[in-house]
Amino acid sequence: MASDAAETGNLQSLLTQLGAGLDDYLKFDHPDALHPSKRWREHLNQALPREGIGIQGVVAELVQQIIPNGSAVPRPGFCSFITTGATTASTLASTAASVASPQRYGLTAFNFLEALSLEWLAEMFGLKSVQGVYSSGGSVANLLALGAARQSAFERIGRDPAADGVDRRVAIYASTEAHHTIQRSAGVLGLGRRAVRPIACDARGRMRVDALQRALDEDARSGILPMAIVANAGTTNTGAIDPLQGIAELAHARGVWFHVDGAYGLPGILDERVAPLYAGLERADSVIVDPHKWLGASVGVAATFVRDRELLQRAFTQEPAHYLEGAVEQSGSTAPILEHSLDDFGVPYYDLGVELSAPARGVVVWALLREIGVAGIKARVERHNEMAAYVAQAAREHPNLELLQEPTLSICCFRYVAANVSDLDLLNQRLHRRLIRGNQNLPSTTRVNGHLALRPCFIGARSELSHARDLVADVLRLGSELAA
Ligand SMILES: *Cc1c(COP(=O)(O)O)cnc(C)c1O
Predict the structure, then answer these.
(1) Domain count of the fold of the chain
(2) 194 is in which domain, residue-wise?
(3) pTM as predicted
(4) At 348, is the pLDDT very low, low, confident or very high (cuts 50, 70, 90)?
């Protein structure tokens, strides 16, 4: 019978076995998990184990049954949605954290790296005089930023919304292309999803500043409190960057909180060809970025930056609890606090957001920056933007392709066209299904200005220009087969 007694000292050999299984997986020469010959579900679908199979049994099942039937997301040709596989450095760092720092608090090296890596991110993206906090993803990062915005807007009229709730209608202004986590944040914050005012975009998916101004004017006449303006630095759909400078000017003139959602696109600022589009970012009151997107962190790492973290603390603090204050009386003591006192929690990240127990995430960001530096991240961002530009150029030049949106970052929306086919949406839908079945080049689809588009989003650390070329070749081959 397997017991807990073996919980010591055999990580080295177990991780070696696991590593071999993961290396095999990363060769991507196994059929995908949806393949009809794959019978993993029958194997795994077992009753609650009354007796354990022991750690060797667990490793064997992980390596033989589970890892090879994992997700297609880490594939170099995967370019759907905005998600990617962790780089090796992130995998190692998150493994290390799960063993050596199950929590981010305490005066440990891990807690220190939370702060240091947040400073590194801010510096890399040109954010000055900001303070950050990590959370699980862009959804929560936006929630925290908007929680700070709510706190700021209500404190100005002499109220504490975190303690007392909200007593009047507010509006959050975000473009029709904004991520829907903005609406959810408004719901969670007690403002109501309908507090989000959809602002029209131009034909390239960028918020129209004139439409924003009109909405602000209208609401001012109706006595609605303007709580925040949300701008996109890289929309999820097409990678468009809103006119940050114009929006910042309007936000400042009206005294409204200016939030920039850079979950996907903030790292684009490292590419000098598009960096000018980020002018105005420096005037933001809050900014978010997802290291688990373009930076290749293991999933569960986002950062929110604000100018004044005390606003976050007032918005999200827990009521004081005796188990957090420490058992040892420190007041009145003149003795220096012991460096390794368990009563010292380091930076109290648990009071700046909505999580108490949370993994150490800074070490993941630290690892990926230590490994390849800003230069390595910049080269990756430039490569991915060039891949989108390559697809755009091919779509402009080939008579059977049509570019549906000029790319800004690493997303390119295009479609297959044929003179003899009238329903191009259906043709591209079928083409997309065939592509996915091939399990090599995996873009998503979206709608752009009324048309169904193939939408590669290049963000994987393992994807290269050759994958953009393969994708275009695949689309042309499948398109001509289907149109024949
Ligand atoms: C992905 C994304 C989000 C949500 O982030 P998660 O990490 O998936 O929670 C928010 N905003 C934008 C612009 C995004 O691309």
Answers:
(1) 1
(2) 91-369
(3) 0.94
(4) confident
